[in-house]
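From the pipeline queue, job 12 of 40. The input is one protein chain; the requested action is below.

Action: predict structure.
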Amino acid sequence: MTLEFDAFLMLETGTMRDSPLRNADTRIGSNTAKDPFLEGRSTRIYQDLNIEAMNEGAKCLVQKTDFKAFCKVGSLQKTTICDVRHAQWQQVAEHRLRFDISADRFLRKHGEGCLWGLWWMWAEVGWLPGMVEDVLHSKDRSRAGMSAAACGLYLSRIDYPFIA
C-alpha cells in the first residue's frame, strides 16, 4: 500500500486562526451495544435517539451569535461569538452516530457543549419550541445541561483561504 501526500510551504501567518471554517465531528455509540472498535474513540449514549428531533435542535445552532451558554465557564476568550454554519446528527451505522459541527472558530468545550446540550434538551427535558434559542440568549452554561467528554471528538477539517 502506497500513501501519497501533497506538501506545500506554510506561510508564517498561516495558522489555524486564519481559517474561516473548521469542522469537528463527534463519534457516538448509542444504546447498550458494546463495540470494541469504538471503545475510547467515541462518546457513549445509553439510549436510542430521535435523530430527526435532534436535527431540529441542531438547525437552531446554525447562526452567528454568542455561544457562551455552550462553552466552558471561566475561559479566557475575549469573545464567545461564533458563526456556526452547519450542525447535524447522522446515523452512520446501527448504534453509531456522528454529530458534525462547522464554525469559524470553536470555543473551549464548544462542540461537546452543543452535543450534550442538544441531547439533554431532548432526552431529559423534552423539546419545547424555542428551547435552543432561549438557552443561547440566556448565555447561562447551567441551562445547557452537562458537557460531553472529549472522547470521540475529532477536528476533521480546516479550510484555509490560501490553499486551493
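Job complete. The helical segments are 51-59, 110-125, 131-138.
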